[in-house]
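As a warm-up, study this chain.
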Amino acid sequence: MIQIKLDKDAGVVTVTPSVPLNEQDFALLASEVDPYIEKEGKL
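Now compare it with the structure written out below.
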């Protein structure tokens, strides 16, 4: 499991894993971050 904090004002994402990362964690991260990147161009 991961905790994702996206600070849209600063353009920064903080990812805090509680266990080793797996494929689902990366999919979750992409679903949270990709729309922001598509809109703003970068983090």
